[in-house]
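Subject: for your reference before the review

Hello V.,

The reviewers asked for a structural picture of the protein, and I figured it would be easier to keep everything in one thread rather than splitting it across files. Below is the amino acid sequence we used in the manuscript, unchanged from the supplementary table.
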Amino acid sequence: MPSVLITGFNRPNLLSKVLHNVVKAEGLTSLYIHIDGPRANYPDDMSQVAACHNLIVDLAKEINIRYYFQENNLGCEKGMKFAIDWFFQQEESGVIIEDDILIHPQALQIAELALIKYQYISKVGQINLYNPIAKNVVNKELGSYFIDYPMLWGWACWRNRWELNLNYPSKKLEFNFGNLGMNKSIGVVAARYWLKKINRFTDDSNTWDIPWLVTCWSHRLICLSFSQSLTTNIGYGSSATHTKGISNLRLAPLSESTFDLTKVQFSDKILTQKKINKKISNQVWDMSACKIVINKIKRIISSRFVKHDSQNFVP
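And here is what came back from the structure prediction:
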């Protein structure tokens, strides 16, 4: 069974739920936990981080856990990078989840099957356990397909893939989306969106997912996704780093199925499903052509009103 890394910071209530969830998962053999340190000038961080430490120390009395507690705060970007580097210094492969992700009881077993099957197929960059467009249909059989989007609300990977991580997209973006075929693979609108988003990335962006996305696309790594979601996110809200508000279109339910592991269908065609790529682009990030036009019209109208008001403003 794969080893598991849980990363956390200052949310003991969520961490408690995730620990309870993961410990009950079938096939757990090795657990790693990384907790970032408290931030300066945030008085509540000290007690909240300490509460996270206590949860882990107490659990370590019952099961074997390797944990790493940072003394100082590294932040989301550097903290996650450190945690995953630390994990893969000790493991060849494994499952990575954050402190707000719940997993399906069979998620680790299914991840292990996928990690073994695609271990030597270097084009496969990661295993997505989260599927934002999945519907919760009870079915003993689980299908799969490949997409270009690495979904990071619960995922599995190999050390040699993670070692390709560019860390920082230096000089903004040196590769050309057109040469990589991303315009055709995820759609022209989506490619433009991501190019702008990547080019806005700086050392102060405090997010680790953009460098990993750039790594996957620059090396043309593709991602296995399952027909049902094997994880879900419970951490959106005011205490979240990035998901303070979240659309229902993006939040998929955790599958309620009990799968026959002998009938998990793994794709032998190592090709991405362009229709599914575009469906994800449209549904998760609102990149349909119609939505883009509507948003553009709204921006034009808004800018005109702002301009009109400023011209009539009398101090």
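For the response letter, the relevant points are probably these. The radius of gyration is 21 Å. Strands lie at 3-8, 31-35, 65-69, 93-98, 101-103, 124-128, 144-147, 155-158, 222-226, 231-233.

Happy to draft the paragraph if you're swamped.

O.
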